[in-house]
Amino acid sequence: MTDKELRRLSRSELLEMLIAQTEENDRLKIRLEQAEAQLRDRRIAIDKAGSIAEAALALNGVFQAAEAAAQQYLENIQRISGQQDAICGEIKEQAAVRTSAPQEDTVGNDLISWRGWIDEA
């Protein structure tokens, strides 16, 4: 509206226009607040998504470290098992050699050892 048109309006018409403008201003303020709240929510969601992605990457690193530790553990178990198999094989060979060799009479020697041990005590 132009100035001339506004001057021709009565006080009640101007007051009605002012009320209408105030109501529209209030509605627009509410819409603005809602839009700002949605924008904040989206920013929070984006920040959370970034945080979730960072957490996933961190967990991925933890899982990789755990997998590497488990693999190293398995390798050590296999190595130790191989060593124990070799030792058992040597003991079996020694036992086979001893059992195939003629046995000496060690019973008398054992009794002498026991008597000496008892006398010392």
- What share of residues is helical? over 70%
Rg over CA atoms, rounded to whole Å, is 48 Å
What is the domain total for the residues? 1
Overall form: rod-shaped
Count of DSSP H/I helices? 3
* Mean pLDDT over all positions: 81
Q: Could you explain how this protein is built, in words?
A:
The protein is built from 3 helices and no strands. The chain is mostly helical and 121 residues long. It has one domain (3-101). The longest helix is centred in the middle third of the chain and has 90 residues, at 11-100. The protein starts with a helix and ends with a helix. The mean pLDDT is 81.
Secondary-structure map with pairings?
Layout: H1 3-8, H2 11-100, H3 107-120
Summarize the structure.
By secondary structure, the protein is an all-alpha fold.
Relevant terms:
single chain; 121 residues; mainly alpha; rod-shaped
